[in-house]
Amino acid sequence: MMCASPIVCCASPPTLCIPMHFPQPQHTHKNTKKTQADCLDASSLSAINAYNPGLSSAWMFQKAMSLRPGQSTNPDFINRLLADNFTTMNNLGNSVMRPFLQDVVQFGSLARTMGSMMVTRPLSVPEILMHVGPGPVADWVVHFVALGVYAALDTAAAPPLRALAGRLSPKQRYALHRVLDAWRYGAGHDYKV
Q1: DSSP letters of 112-130?
Q2: Taking a C-beta distance cutoff of 8 angstroms, is the pair 8, 17 a contact?
Q3: Is-contact 180 158, C-beta < 8 A?
Q4: In sequence order, what are the beta bridge partners of 8?
Q5: Mean pLDDT of 32-56
Q6: Are 105 and 188 in contact (CB under 8 A)?
Q7: CA 116, CA 90: separation in Å to the nearest integer?
């Protein structure tokens, strides 16, 4: 079977194949640019895979829907959390649901979902805190705030900086483009509904 989009097959033989969105940061283009700009030092190379607050904040979803060894919880907790989450996202529409289904975490969608869940199901917050623990939640808040900062920077600061890029040396331009890429991919703005 040939398909234009990446496919994840979840069974053998493949009985359930789910199209998945895999952001393509165009590493080939970046490799060409880094060699042309003489940016092969460790610092320049590490900028290709920069911190991604969307990815760093996504772990909380997995943590909230799993049990640590020896942990006990209400048997309905995870199913109820999933049902509430999907009901909320469905009510908020495609602009919220579609990125989530494609494993793309975006600040606006996540903030709207959490805000709506806190209004419609306020007891879910203490339940999640008890299940996950306050320390991991506090750590996650840092990544969530960073997600918002990256989204704001990609929206407000990136356009004028892109215009400035043509006046920079190749090495400076390479560094600037890696920062702009980090903001774009870190904010989940590479995915468009």
Answers
A1: HHHHHHHHH-TTHHHHHHH
A2: yes
A3: yes
A4: 18
A5: 72
A6: yes
A7: 11
Nearest to 111 by CA among 141, 78, 133: 141
- Which DSSP helix (H) or strand (E) runs through 8? strand 7-9
Residues 80-122 pLDDT 10s: 989 999 999 999 999 999 999 998 999 999 999 999 999 999 9
pTM of this structure: 0.76
Contact assessment for residue 105 and residue 55, using Cβ atoms and an 8 Å cutoff: yes
State how far the Cα of 108 lies from the Cα of 191, in Å rounded to an integer: 13
Residue that has been written with the tokens 């008890």 in this structure:
130
- Separation between Cα atoms, residue 85 and residue 120, nearest integer Å: 11
- CA 128 → CA 123, 133, 158, 186, distances in Å? 9, 8, 35, 25
Pairwise CA distance, residues 22 & 103, whole Å: 9
The DSSP string of 28-76 is: HHHHHHHHHTT--SHHHHHGGG---HHHHHHHHHHHHTS--TT----TT
Measured in whole angstroms, how far is the alpha carbon of residue 32 from the centre of its chain?
26
CA-to-CA dists, residue 13 to 6, 9, 10, 16, 116, angstroms: 17, 9, 9, 9, 40
Taking a C-beta distance cutoff of 8 angstroms, is the pair 113, 92 a contact? yes
CA separation for the pair 52, 143 (Å, rounded): 9
d(CA 119, CA 85): 12
What is the structure's pLDDT at 2? 38
